[in-house]
Inverse folding.
């Protein structure tokens, strides 16, 4: 077997394939629709899509191993109660990710959540998403300056990225269910 053919016998990793799918679709959509080619931001958005494919990624453990939950209210409570420096930036980033995910990809899901009367009914996901990304960007400025810049960009133009993610969703929904 020649080195150039070694990959032909390797099993496909569905996670890698899904990540590449989201990366290509996100890049194409944001470039065509908005002329936006900021690779770090586009990469962050495509990673967010790949991470949240599994609903388990929305449920993470907070401080002390307590579940943060998959509702924005629970995540914000955890972030607000953490002592300074204890992964607050990461938890606020997760809150921003949840808000952007639901606002951009499934706004109809937010309406349904509001009808169920959950704690999130009183939250404005756009306001909380912008706030969460802004706080995360400030908290991560010293340790992760590149990440902080991406989070600040998401905070500043949250609505644009929500609209863009909705367009990404519409594009993937137009794809054939079984292309092969």
């Amino acid at each position: 077997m020649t080195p150039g053919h070694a990959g032909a016998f390797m099993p496909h990793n569905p996670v890698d394939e899904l990540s590449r799918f989201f990366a290509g679709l996100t890049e194409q959509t944001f470039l065509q629709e908005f002329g936006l080619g900021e690779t770090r931001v586009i990469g962050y958005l495509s990673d967010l899509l790949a991470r949240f494919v599994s609903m388990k990624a929305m449920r993470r453990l907070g401080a002390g191993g307590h579940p943060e939950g998959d509702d924005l209210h629970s995540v914000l409570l955890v972030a607000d109660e953490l002592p300074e420096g204890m992964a607050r930036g990461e938890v606020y980033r997760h809150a921003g990710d949840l808000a952007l995910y639901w606002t951009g990809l499934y706004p109809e899901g937010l309406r349904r959540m509001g009808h169920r009367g959950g704690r999130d009914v009183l939250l404005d996901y756009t306001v909380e998403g912008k706030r969460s990304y802004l706080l995360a960007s400030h908290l991560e400025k010293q340790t992760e300056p590149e990440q902080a810049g991406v989070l600040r960009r998401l905070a500043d133009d949250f609505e644009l990225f929500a609209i863009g993610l909705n367009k990404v969703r519409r594009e993937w929904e137009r794809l054939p269910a079984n292309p092969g």
Q: What stands out?
A: Helices lie at 14-34, 39-52, 72-81, 88-105, 107-115, 125-140, 145-156, 158-174. Residues 14-173 form one domain. The mean pLDDT is 81. The radius of gyration is 18 Å.
